[in-house]
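#onboarding

Welcome to the new folks! Below is a worked example of what a typical request in this channel looks like: someone posts a single protein sequence, and someone else replies with the predicted structure as tokens. Don't worry about understanding the tokens yet, we'll cover that in week two.

Example request:
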Amino acid sequence: MRAAGGSVRDRLSDRVAASDPGLLRLAAGLRTVSSIAFTLLVLSLFGADVRLLVAGAIAAMVSTFAIREKQRAQQAVTLALGLPVALASVSLAAVLHSRVVGGDLFFVVLIFCAVYVRRFGDRGTALGLIGFQVYFMALFVGASVSTLPTLWGVVAAAFASSAVVRFALVYETPAGILERLREAFRARLAQLVTAQLALLDAGPGEIDKALEDVRDGTSRLHETAMMIQGRLDEGTADEATARLVQRRIADAEIAAERLGLLLLNARSAERADTLTLHLPGAPVPPGGHLPVRDEANVTLRRDLEALRLLVLRPVSAGTGTGLAQVRNRLLGYRDEENLPKASPAVQDVFRGIGEAARAVLGLRIALGAAPDDTDDSPSTARSREELDAEDAAIDAGEEAAEEPRAGLERPTTRAAVQVAVGSSLAIIGGEFLSSQRWYWAVLTCWIVFINTASTGEILVKGYRRLLGTVLGVVAGLLLAGLVGHHTWTAFALVLLCVFAMFYTAPLSYTLMSFFVTAALGVLYTLLHTYSLSVLVLRVEETALGAACGIIAAAFVLPVQTDSRTNELLVTVLDRLSDVTEAAVDQLSGGDPADLLDKARDLDQALADLRAATQPLTHPVTPMRTRRNTARYVVALLETCAYHARSLAAMAELLPTHPSIAADPRLRRAGQRILRNIETISARVADERAAVEVQTGASIAALLETDQPGTSRYGRITDRVLRHLQRLDEAVVGLARPLKVPVAQPKR
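Example response:
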């Protein structure tokens, strides 16, 4: 059994796993840096000069980061296809070097094609990136026809080095990545339980910070669950195993989120709104009797710490008698007779701990833990039987494919036209700034269009790149002054900057741009073209490229941020309706549905909407009212998604759980919710739609009984109705910020 804190190595491992799920950022940085270093080593053995070393470093970086497929065989094919694309690109750049008009026209055509081929998936995206970036590399090092044979060798060496590093030195498999992601989920789950324990103990002046930590922990856990979802097909042996892991990850996530809400309820004088967990800055409900050091609350703190220890224990660890007793005690809280004497709100927390312990047990079994039932209590044995029955009932489902768009409505086609126009403007403007380094403006215009879909997103990305570039120029000045013309010291600094660039890229686009610009300052020093004027020109070209991209996005086939967010909002509402309808139907006795996949489709749609609203919620946006509205709507939708996921999880238990029985009356309870979701979706899609959100008697009224203190239904059905009630309130709450009329209830 691990000690409360575990060994230093264990704690460090958990921190790394939690901060970089799957070690994906670390692997990307190491793989790219190793490819560059190996290329430099090979080229130096052949006596290459500095210009060729720089060309090889850039080609190695491109051939490494462009490959995005998850299966190794697919990566090998894309890398093999990328070599002739790179050779053709560098050849055309060298041939057209002295033909200004012809070279510029071809560059625009190349940019259009590089964006257009993104429609063919990861391979098309990779080949487009290679074609564009290698052409840029040729411009950067001043490729000419006379140097072409040597550059072919440099590019071939870079691709070969990239292959050696990818398939031999920094070896990754889909199964290995998934295993590390599951470790990250375990570490982040433990961090969330720690934050929940701090929330329980927080005093009046500490509760805001403690609640914010719980929000962050919940969000990070959900992020990791989504990453696991994206790796299941490639990282598991078969579809049944993938669905089993998916099910257990979903159970653990829902149980942890519900435990946080129950703790907030236990701290409050009144029942806390679920929105409090999802809206940053939401007011904390007034405090109640906690924290008080009575016997029940001391036990509660002890059991939260015990739950954290259960989570931290690795799958490979053996089970000691003491840990088995802890597990049995926590699982015993699933039975009413084992609950400590306490207020109803605190007893709910104990129930939540029991359900979380069950989710942890199921997760361990799904991840391959050796069975150990020698010290099982009756409650633990029952939990194992339920988990086994659920595992046996898991079936594979099929997903319906969406009908693709055609012509200029296809995002890749629209983006290709926009970036071609923006690049043309950048070439013209860049030539006025510098006839030698105009391509920096084109590079910026290209980059701000990558992974963006609206004018607002491009504006924010352009701003971040410009800010990172300005800061990077200052750093480049300092680094260039330090290294002077010491070639290998300079390359060592470039490698450090490249590693930092890839490690920080998913976290901050500004930081990534900072490290890119700092590395370029050092490369300019190596090429003997370093000067303050060059770095200032870099800032000017970056600003010009960002401006050209924004202009093209705003006036050429524009996609306004409002239009984009409305489209994604309709998608989220449709997915929410699908999950809710399927879950309520199954809980009412309908046919089983593929609820987990529907729930994850909802999560993905919500993630897309959250990303699209970044221009509206950015701190520098001058429209504070729109920013607050966007944050509020997204938080309400996250609340809706939480209750929909919870309903789906309980519906999945229906065929095997002995305490859950289908109740046809639940279908009637969910009809108003579904009708209101459809109403809001119709109004968002068409502002002229004459629709109204319906309100009426509380869904929770179904819980009323003839005798006070008793429940008409079982505890599980009560929970279903509570989730429906909260979902109904959240859906009606969406009407006000989205300006959907609300009908007055009939009396």
